[in-house]
User: Which sequence fits this backbone?
């Protein structure tokens, strides 16, 4: 997954009407941009009031799905009907609905001290039953969950979600900035770590995410949902702050650690340009075309010279990446044999394939095809182990 990590208030963009729905077509326009250009996720929140980011709104009931904005009055069916329309369009387009129940600090039923009230349980169950039929859907209990609830409360809510969802979607919990280790290590209902890093460079971001992935050891998967800090916002898309390449470098640094990635701030200031979204699709489709991707582990140690990161099924297949290629991709310890090479220009999407390439035991510097002129990714698989590339 590689896509936008916002707008967090996606469900509430536009002018609120008396029936609880939003007026305008902003949501449709965003979905259309993703469908056309790239980016296969949307980070959105159901409750942004009652302590969340919309707490100071002129209309305190503006950014939640409750009747008249009051959690004690239950869910507004007109609001949910409109959400269903947007979610159906996203699902059909293969865009993951990354559904946060609560914004950071949101406490619509009071601080979550470990005992889930019947009202809160009913809210979670109603949301799950209403939207669980969508295929491209991940539940996330809360953003920066520590701000609004205890560990035990978040765990109990995850149990409620799991019991209500007979489709068994992934359930995640989002942690605070700079926390690279999952709190819910032994919770069988939480199988995704929604990570937030404050790394100030692509290399340090790679290190942060790799720490989280290795800690999971296959027991949960990692999604880098946010990367920003006050001094350096290289992965924060905003007009005048950063360019497309800086975002792309960080996307690949995360993917090459074995995680999925969202770009925080994609829609914060203005809609991103089409090329930045296309970069997301290039990464997504390349990784989805690796049949043994989910078996790979980090092997950065076998890359040298301009090779930054390596993922591998040792002895069988490899992905290597260079942010500043010098004409060759340098790797060691591949083993002697004939290999199939699939080269990617990460900026243009250009792919060059080479068959029956002889590689000798030890260190090898593989010549990058002249058609590849930007950052480069390379998939290598032994001809005698080859699995058909996914088209």
Assistant:
């Amino acid at each position: 997954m590689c896509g936008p990590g916002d707008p967090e208030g996606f469900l509430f963009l536009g002018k609120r009407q008396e029936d609880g729905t939003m007026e305008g077509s902003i949501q449709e326009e965003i979905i259309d941009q993703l469908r056309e250009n790239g980016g296969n996720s949307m980070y959105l929140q159901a409750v942004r009031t009652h302590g969340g980011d919309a707490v100071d709104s002129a209309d305190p009931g503006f950014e939640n799905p409750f009747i008249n904005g009051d959690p004690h009055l239950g869910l507004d069916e007109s609001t949910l009907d409109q959400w269903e329309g947007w979610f159906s369009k996203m699902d059909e387009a293969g865009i993951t609905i990354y559904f946060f129940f609560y914004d950071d600090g949101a406490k619509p039923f009071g601080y979550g001290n470990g005992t889930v009230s019947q009202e809160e349980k009913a809210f979670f169950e109603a949301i799950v039953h209403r939207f669980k039929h969508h295929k491209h859907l991940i539940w996330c209990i809360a953003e920066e969950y520590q701000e609004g609830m205890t560990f035990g409360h978040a765990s109990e809510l995850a149990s409620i979600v799991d019991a209500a969802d007979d489709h068994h979607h992934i359930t995640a919990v989002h942690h605070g900035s700079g926390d690279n280790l999952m709190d819910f290590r032994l919770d069988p209902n939480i199988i995704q770590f929604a990570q937030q890093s404050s790394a100030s460079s692509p290399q340090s971001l790679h290190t942060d995410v790799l720490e989280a992935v290795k800690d999971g050891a296959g027991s949960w998967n990692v999604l880098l949902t946010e990367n920003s800090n006050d001094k350096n916002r290289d992965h924060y898309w905003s007009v005048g702050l950063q360019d497309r390449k800086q975002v792309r470098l960080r996307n690949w640094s995360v993917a090459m650690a074995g995680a999925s990635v969202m770009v925080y701030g994609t829609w914060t200031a203005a809609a991103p340009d089409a090329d930045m979204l296309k970069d997301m699709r290039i990464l997504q489709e390349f990784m989805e075309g690796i049949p043994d991707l989910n078996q790979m582990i980090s092997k950065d140690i076998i890359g040298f010279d301009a090779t930054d990161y390596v993922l591998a099924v040792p002895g069988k297949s490899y992905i290597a990446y260079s942010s500043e290629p010098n004409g060759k991709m340098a790797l060691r310890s591949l083993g002697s044999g004939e290999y199939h090479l699939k080269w990617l220009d990460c900026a243009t999407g250009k792919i060059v394939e080479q068959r029956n390439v002889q590689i000798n035991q030890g260190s090898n510097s593989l010549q990058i095809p002249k058609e590849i002129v930007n950052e480069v990714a390379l998939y290598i698989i032994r001809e005698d182990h080859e699995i058909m590339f996914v088209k």
